[in-house]
Amino acid sequence: MRRPERAAAGLTGVLVSLQRSWEQMGVVRSVRTLPLVDQLGGFDCPGCAWPDPQGHRSPRPS
Hints:
Elements: H1 10-33
């Protein structure tokens, strides 16, 4: 099996997400909101095809 030739979003996806959030919410609201993505007390990303199972949500990579 071959490795993918390129990432689906990667760093570009992160940068575009930050840009859009700053444009729509401002920097302060973005900094407060983005750490809540995919958290039990926050919200699950509606764009993700496979949400993380209960107990596996963390702001840090696993």
